[in-house]
Amino acid sequence: MIARIRSTRGFTLIETLIALVLLGLVSVVIYRMLITTQRVTDAQAERGDLQVNLRAGALVIPNELRQITIGTGTTLDTISDIRAVTDTSITYRAMRGFYTICATPASATTLTVTNAAGFSSEYRTPTTSDSAFVLWEGDTTKTSDDAWVQVGLAGVSSTTCTYAGASRSAYTFTFMSPGIPNAAFPYAKIQPGSPVRTYETVLLSLYASGGQQWIGMQVGSGTMQPVVGPLAPTTGGLYGFQLTYYDSTGTALAASAANVPKIRTIKIALRGVTNDQVALAGRTRSVIKDSLVTYVTLRNAPFN
Amino acid sequence: MPMTRRSDERGIALILAVFALVVIGALVAGVFYTAQLEQRSGGNALAGQQAADAAQSGIDYAIANWNNAWTTMGTGNSVTIASTQLGTSPEYFNATVTALNGFTYLMTSTGQVKNGAGTVLATRAYGMIYKKNIPTLNVQSSVTVAGGVSVGGSADINGNDVPPTAGGWSSTCAGQPTTNQPAIRTDSSVSTHGSPTLTGGTVSNDTTVGTTITDVNQAYNTFINSANVTIPSGTITGADPALNASHVCDRTNTSNWGDPEYKSTAAYTVGATTTHPCASYYPIIHATGDLKVTGDIGQGILLVDGNFTSGGGFTFYGLVIVKGSITKGAGTSNFYGGLLSESASITDDLTGTINIQYSSCAINTAVSQSAVARPIVQRPFIQY
After folding, report:
1. How high is the mean pLDDT of chain B?
2. Phi/psi of residue A193, each to 5°?
3. Which of A171, A227, B131, B304 has a CA between 20 and 30 Å from the CA of residue B189?
C-alpha cells in the first residue's frame, strides 16, 4: 500500500473552481474601485477647472465694466461708454490708460502726457487703434463747465516732458483731424496736470465656437476671441452668459439703448460646463454644470 | 483533534485589504486635494474682494478727511495716509493724495488683505480724481436779504468794494479787482430811521437776490459738511486765534476762528521773524441754532441755522450766512465781506455802531479757502 503523503496533496477541482470564483469576484471589486477612483478624480479635476473658469470670468468681466461712464441725459449720448446692450452682450468703451497732461498743447492735434509712476495707470501701451478722452477745463475753480473731449489717436510716440519741475517719461499723442474741436473747446484751456483716458471699443458677447458656447471679446472690428468658457447651452431662457441691467433703485431694465442712461448696476450670470463629460456612479456620462453670479456697480455713473 | 495551521495556507486577504486601503486612500486624497484647491480658489476670490473693499475704504477715508491744507501742495507733491487697518479685520489700505496741478488731485488707494503672519494675500488699487470746487456765491452787496430790511441808528453799511488792510489782508488782496456794490439788496423793501450811512444806496425788489439766495442754499449744506467748528445754540465769548505747543495753529480749538488781524497772542517769533500761523486759517463755523457772539474775532464763513445776534466787540472777516434774522446787540461790531440772511428779514434795527464793509476779496478768500474737493465730471474713477 502506498502511503499518502499529506504534504504533497493537490487541489481538487472544486477547490480550484471556488478559488477561481473568489479571485474573479475580488478582481471585479478591485476593477470597480479603480474605475470609481478614476471617475471621481476626473470629475473633481473637471469641476475644479470649471470653478476656476467661472471665478476668472467673475473677476475679469467686472474689471472691464467697472470704469464705465454713463451720461446724465435721458437718451444714449456720446458721453455714455455703453454703446449697445442685449441680454447676452454689451458693447462698451474699455479704459486702457490714464495719463497726466504735461503742458497745455500748442495745437489741436498733438498732446504730450506723462506715463510716469504716480501720474498714470496703464492697462497696456497705447496704440493708434485707441481713442482718448481729454479733460477740458473752463473755469479752473469749478467743475460745472468741465468736459471730456473725445479724440482718435493717429500716432503715439515715446518721449520725455517736463512736468511738476522734473523730466518724466511721456507719450506724444497725435490726434486724428480735426483733433480738439477748438471752437467749442479751445485747446488753450487744457491745463497741465489734467487727466487723459485712453480707451478701445469692446464687444463682450455670448458666442458659439467649436460646438460650444463661450464668452467672446471682440476689440473694434477685430476677431472674436474666447475669454471664458465653455458655457452651458441655452435652456429655458437661461444663457451661459447673461447680463441684467438695473437702475439706481434696483429695478431691472430691459436691454435697450433707451435704457442705457439709467443703468447703474449690471448683474453678470455665468453658467459653465466642464470641458469633458464625466461619468459618476449610477449616472450616464455628462458634463457637470455650475453657475456663478456677480454684480458690478458702474463707478463713473451719476449718483442718481 | 485540533487542526494544525499550515504555514503555506496564507490567503490573499491581507494583500487585498492593503490594496483596498491604498485605493480608498488615493480616492480620499484626490477628493481632499480637489477640495483644497477649491477652498484656496474661493479664498483667493474672497481676499481679492476684501482687498478691493479696503482700497475703496482708502478713497473714502481720504475724501472724508479732506484737509484744505492739501490744496496748497505744489504740483506733483503728495501726502500719504499711513497704512490703516480696518477695525480688527485683515484688511489694510495705504492712500496717497497727489496734486496734479493747483486744482486737481489724484487719490490712489491700495487695499491689502494679510494673514496672521503679515503675508499679503491679495492687493487691489483704485484711484479717484478730485477737483477743488469753489461754490458760486455771487454776493453783490454788503447786506443781502430775502425779505424786508429795517436799518436805523448809526449803522454804517458800505457797498464800496474795499479790501481789508489789517493783518495779512493787504497782501492777500493785492491785485484783486474791485467792483462797488449797493449797501443793501433785498427782494422786498428797505426802511430806514435814525441816521444810518448806506454808502452805495439800497436796491429794493431786486430780482438778483433770488439767484444769490439759491446759490447760497446750494452751498450751505456743502459748507456744513466741511465745517471746522460746530457750536450749539448759545452765546460765544472770547473766540481768539490759538497756537498749540508746537507753535502751529491749533485747529482743534473750537474757539479758534482764525487770525485776521495778527493778534499778538497768536504770534510766534523766532529771532527777528514773527509769524502768525492762524492767519491762513479760514474756518467754516457752523452754529446749529441761535447764536450770539460777543467780543470775538474771526474769519472764514460763519453759518447760523437760527437767529444771529452780533454783540459788542465782534469783528469778522469773510462771509456770514444766517438762516434766521440778524440782530445788532449792544456795542460795536465790524464786518468785512458780506452778510446774507437767507430766509428771513432783518427783524430788528441795525442800530448802534455796526460797520459792514463790503469786500469781494474777503468773501472770495473765505470761500476759496473753504473749497471742497469733488470728483471730476463723468470719469473720476480709475482702476489700477
Report:
1. 86
2. 95, -15
3. B304
Specify the range with the lowest mean pLDDT, choosing from A13-17, A130-134, B184-188, B329-333.
Answer: B329-333
Residue B6 has a pLDDT of 53
pLDDT at B11: 65
What is the Cα–Cα distance from B248 to B371, expressed in whole angstroms? 22
Q: Minimum mean pLDDT among A92-96, A281-285, B270-274: which range? A: A281-285
pLDDT band at B1 (very low <50, low <70, confident <90, very high): very low
Closest C-alpha among A271, A272, A254 to residue A263: A254
Q: Write out residues 25-64 of B within 8 Å (CB-CB) of A.
A: 26-27, 30-31, 33-34, 37-38, 41-42, 45, 48
Residue in A51, A121, A300 closest to B41 by CB: A51
The dihedral built from the CA positions of residue B343, B349, B352 and B358, taken in this order, carries a sign that is positive
Provide the pLDDT confidence category of residue A231 given band limits of 50, 70 and 90: very high
Residues B184/B206, Cβ–Cβ less than 8 Å: no
Maximum CA pair distance of chain A?
A: 131
Cell numbers describing residue B258: 482764525
Q: Is the pLDDT of residue A284 over 50?
A: yes
d(CA A125, CA A118): 16
Q: Identify how many contiguous H helices and E strands chain A contains and give both numbers.
A: 1, 14
**Confidence (pLDDT) at B199:** 94
> How many CA within 13 A on the CB side of residue B269?
6
Q: Residues of A with CB below 8 A from B127's CB? A: 98, 121
Cβ neighbours of B382 in A, within 8 Å: 67, 95, 98, 121
Q: What pLDDT is attached to residue A119? A: 96
d(Cα A245, Cα A250) in Å, to the nearest integer? 9
The answer to whether residue B279 scores a pLDDT higher than 60 is yes
Q: Between chains, do B133 and A142 touch, taking CB under 8 Å as contact?
A: yes
CA-based diameter of chain B, in Å?
143
Above 70 in pLDDT, residue B331? yes
Q: Give the number of other CB atoms < 10 A from CB of residue A200.
A: 19
| CB contact (8 A) between residue A193 and residue B75 | yes
B70 vs A261, residue with greater confidence: A261
> With contacts defined as CB-CB under 8 Å, which chain B residues touch A193?
75, 99-102, 104
Q: Which string of b and e fits A256-283 if b means at least 16 CB within 10 Å?
A: eeebbbbbbbbebbbbbbbbeebeeeee
Contact A51 B27 (CB under 8 A): no
CA distance B233 to B229: 13
Residue A230 has pLDDT above 70, yes or no: yes
Q: In the predicted model, what is the mean pLDDT of residues B77-101?
A: 93
Torsion of CA A210, A216, A219, A223, to 10 degrees: 10
At residue B169, φ and ψ (nearest 5 deg) are: -65, -35
